Amino acid sequence: MSEVATPFHARQATLDGTLTLRALLRHGFAVSVYPRQVVTATPGASAPGAERIEPGHGATELSFVHGLPGTSGLAPVTFSQDKRMRRALLERAGIAVPKGATFTMGRGVRGSHRFAHRIGFPVVVKPAVGDNAIETFAGIGDDAALEAALDHLRTPPTERPGFSRAAYGLTELREPGEENGRIVVPSSYTFLVEKQLSGAYLRCLVIGDEVHSVISCVGAPGDGSLTGGIEILHQIHPGFTDLARRAAAVIDGLAVVTVDIVAPNPYDHPSTQTFGVVELSERPGLWVQAMVDPQLAEGLAEEILISYARSCGVAVAGGRDEVTVELEAHALPDVVEGAAAIESAASEAGLRCRITDSDRVAGVVRADLSGGVGPMAELTDALLDGRIDRQQVMLAVLSPRPVMR
Amino acid sequence: MHTSGPTEPVVILDGLQALEYRSIGVGRRGQQRSLTNALVRVDALLPDGGSVFGLGEAQFRGAQTGDHGGRARAFLVESLHRLEGRELTVTDRATALESIRRMMADLAAVAAEQDHLDRRDSPRARDLRGIVKTAVQWARLSDNVGPFRGALFGIETALLDVAGRALDIPTSELLAGAPVDRHGPEVLAPLRILRSTADEAMAEITFSLAGTDPRPVLWLDLDARLRLPETLDLIGRLGRAATRGELPGRILVRRAVNVRDSYRLGAVRRAAQRFSTDGVAIEIVNDTVLSSGAVASRRIRGQVISVRPHALGGLVASLRQIGRIAEAGGRPYVVDVEAGGPIAHAAQLHLGAAARTAVPVVATPRDEASVLAGPGLGVPMPWEEIVDSVTDHVIVRPTATDTPAPGLSANTYREVPFLQPLGPNGTKGHLLEREALARGMSTIRFSKGAFVASDRRHEPLVFKWSRSPLSSAVALAMCTHKEATRIRLSRAGVPVPRGRTFGNGDLETARAFADHLGYPVVVKPAMGVRGIGVVAGIADRTELDLAFEQLTDSKLGDQDFIVEKHIPGKDYRIVVVGDRVIAAILREPASVIGDGVRSVAELLINKNAFRRLNPHLWGRPIMYDAAARYQLERIGMDLESVPAKGQHILLSNSCSLSQGGDSTDVLDELHPSIKQACVAAVQAIPGLAFCGVDFLLEDHTVPLDEQESGICELNAHAAIGNCEYPFFGTPREVARIFIDECVTRYGLDVAAEPASEVSLQLTIKGRTMGTNYAHWMRRNAREFGLAGWVRRINRRTLEAVISGETAAATALTAAAVLGPSRSKVTSVTTTHVTAPHRTTFTIVKNAPEELARV
């Protein structure tokens, strides 16, 4: 059975990458897609001045992972995934963050309870290191709720439902611990306890040094309570967009930053109220905008692409919602079954697909693929993720062709 | 024949060694903790021209043995030097004992003198904590152990062993002055309970005894954790459980209450007596080191009393104490220290057997069948147990050469002591900061691995381990997926091994693929690091299945995995920065080379001694593990075997430096075609600016097209220390070139050349109160030869000025974020200042001088 669709929590983690791929296809880029949403792209044959190139041969090549442009540095994304350091940098830049402290699971549990009492409930608990804006436990009102949250975090991350780790995240090599026969996180595993602020939850998307979107959320993205929101980029007080820009700049070397702010009144000057930056992520997190308006998310993915391409001096051709590409699927375990699975999945996704060649020795299938850029991006993601009849592809090359009639 | 007079035969102590090794105990929170023992070996020449050796075990346990930190080690080494060349009279038992007594009296005097000097230099009552400790000792509420008793115990045991072997009698017979019962004393296995409530303690006792053979006596060590009410509660429960037959009828309880309640020990004893009815006896062990006066007072009648050779300074004093206790009506038990080793255990058995009435020994049981037969202690060198745990080896009269192997000269680096406070991976998080500071940048460090560096004109650059802003997140994501890397490199025309990835558990397809590919093959995790789970040279299906098992059992066993063609080459790590190859090392499996004299064990320890002088390798010794045993068994050898001169003995099949592998610089010999391939590989990965290329090559000096080769991995956050500090060959300035690249790429405004000396002002924030942070910093600064001062600004902030050699000052700056064990530093901000007018490092209340920022 083909299964292109992904569960919701997985979709949160992968939508940025899928929308980026969609944007690249829409603007006629030739793309190479590797596992874990690594994409390289060069202007396609239809783009002005474009030429087909092999990797490492000198031409300007754009690259992405999970929708992050190649201009996001390795150390900067690592810093942004460490909440203690991130909070310290924000504080040093004079940007308000909620009262908070980190503790280790081995020695800090009692201290975290004492700290929660000192700063006052409700508090928020989250892992101190790792992907941002996930696994947040909000509205913790007493010791029992705090203990319940910590009990969840005692489970090793890879065993937790809905857990995801970015392809550039730190690999856990510490030995797990054991409590009464239960495998738990290492004793040095750290978590953050933070005062929960009250007010509107604002998700700001900063691309380059400009704020491109501010969603006033209903619920919060990190704790699973988000049910919707509204775009208030043009209504929010400029003091907050300025704050988001300054917060995004505390870690130099991030091409895209999302800054989450909690403030009682986003339409008033920040100086009149108590607010705080509660999250800062290196990822676009476009699933939040997609929940408000799918087209808004698609548009922002294109803005990220255009901003990045411009910074690299790469021209971006006009967009087409329907394209034709030649697909090369590499490293298929069985090219006959693989070709059939691709054809079937493409058809189910509303794409036109014609297998043109299959090379059994090399494990490569070639096909002409035509249709909407959105379904095409999703199909490619599914192929790389092994979600189509377990046909795990290790490289998909999509080269633009004139539109099939 | 050696004689001290016309008739007295003597043995000459001509070779003395101390092998300090780690022994694993249990910490206060149940975690593993590393404790230190030192095996003392004394080689002696016999009157007939033959030779014997004696063994002892020094045990360094702080207040329990009077041996504190580096002072104890220094005392041990000093004592061995004093014994070198001394003569031990071995006419008979009595003269041998007297001769040993005189030597030990000399050393005890040295110990007392040294202790006096140490106390003068570092008064213990310098703060409230110290005053309370001293008061508790004066009130005899805690052990008041003499200085360096653990070290003296080890030395004396070795001398007794020598004398016993020289006289061809067991040590017990030497001690007793007459033949002893060789069945030996009763050995009681202690049950150590590390809980602070009676509930938890009782649950653990029940759990620990479940399913074990019934024992007539239970020796419980409560580790002085329980407060008085909890102890009384536990004793009640023990009594009731014993009455019901659920626990042994006789229970001896050591360290029954917390030191704060130790003055109420009488109440605990009375409670124990109350529950000692109906065939049940609960007794509280008297655990203090009793003076002869206290023993003579006969207040100890009927009490169970622990006798600890490690606290009394040896077997002779312990035997004397046992005699006194028995005479006063007490019941002595010889008690081993936590995590004691095999030699101390043998010594205690001889002690127990030597007493007039055999005294039970409380220790973890070991194979002790032939120990009491002697001669001496009756135990050989315990190589198996200690060989890969040896952390230091001092040879007073060295017979070893000063190389790790004949004809090879290893690099040694003077900055090792500066880097040791940072731990085994210390170079990885420190070297870039060192270079940044040397070029005049200021830094903020948040953890052992993470810091930001700024020239104060541009945005600060961030670093975590060797993750830098130079490379992109995309580059890492691609490099950590081996299949993606292989495909990418292959399409770029770079040589890579053929292979493919399989889903976790898809072993059947993988087997078929390996058959199709042809053996030998390699199996490795799809997103591996540090060589974990990698098995190379798989020759057939049977070995393939073993490799699958090994991978599944590894830390990365839950990943997809790769099967690829094995390239029969050597393993090279080649470092590329930008478009330049800047370093290259050959990595070879752990091995030793014979000299025709020393055993495999001695060669291994000797090589590890050289590894400890390398900043990157000191925490990565050659291990005597299953792989090493396998390699030795393959060639019919063991640790005692003496390889022929020049014979190369492999101890591992992995080239990983973390598993004891050697590194040899080969940069200058690298063929240009290999360099070109490395640069091409790095350029094929988008955004990759710093990379460790793992290249399999048959010969690094010949062109690529004349050999079989393949790049098997690209490391986007490769370690820096392995090429900066190769074991053999020329060290390369990897960190310096890395920072040079940052300077060029970001147009930083810094000094053109690194400074050889710096003066740094540190602002240290975090929890440091009550942790002796300032003393910790002063001690390290003085040991590193640095000048400056440290002062407290407020509860959470300290300020320090550190001035001196760049390598030392910057290492202390990095270590400042770790601090002493109980501190929790959250950040260290470092800026450059003018050099202070000082020659030493002190603790001050106010800044002694204003220093301008530079």
Helix and strand pattern of chain A: HEEEEHHEHEEHEEEEEEHEEHHEHEEHE
State the helical fraction of chain A. 25-40%
N- to C-terminal separation of chain B?
A: 71 Å
The helix tally of chain A amounts to 10
CATH fold label of the largest domain in chain A:
Alpha-Beta Plaits
| Low-pLDDT residue spans of chain A | 1-6, 46-58
How many domains comprise the coordinates of chain A?
3
Commentary on this structure:
The complex is a heterodimer of chains A (405) and B (854). With 405 residues, chain A is an alpha+beta fold. Chain A folds into three domains: 8-67 and 314-401, Alpha-Beta Plaits (2-Layer Sandwich), CATH 3.30.70; 72-96 and 198-283, ATP-grasp fold, B domain (D-amino Acid Aminotransferase, Chain A, domain 1), CATH 3.30.470; 99-195, Dna Ligase, domain 1 (2-Layer Sandwich), CATH 3.30.1490.20. In chain A, 30% of the residues lie in helices and 28% in strands. An eight-stranded antiparallel beta sheet of chain A has the order 4-3-2-1-19-16-18-17, covered by helices on one side. A five-stranded antiparallel beta sheet of chain A has the order 13-12-11-14-15. A four-stranded antiparallel beta sheet of chain A has the order 5-10-6-7, with helices on one face. Chain B is of the alpha+beta class. Among the domains of chain B are: 10-174, Enolase-like, N-terminal domain (Enolase-like, domain 1, 2-Layer Sandwich), CATH 3.30.390.10; 187-373, Enolase-like C-terminal domain (TIM Barrel, Alpha-Beta Barrel), CATH 3.20.20; 498-566, 2-Layer Sandwich (Dna Ligase, domain 1); 592-653, no CATH class. Helix content of chain B is 34%, strand content 23%. Chain B is built from 26 helices and 32 strands. Chain B has an eight-stranded mixed beta sheet with strand order 16-15-14-31-28-30-29-32. Chain B is globular and about 85 Å long. The N and C termini of chain B lie far apart (71 Å).
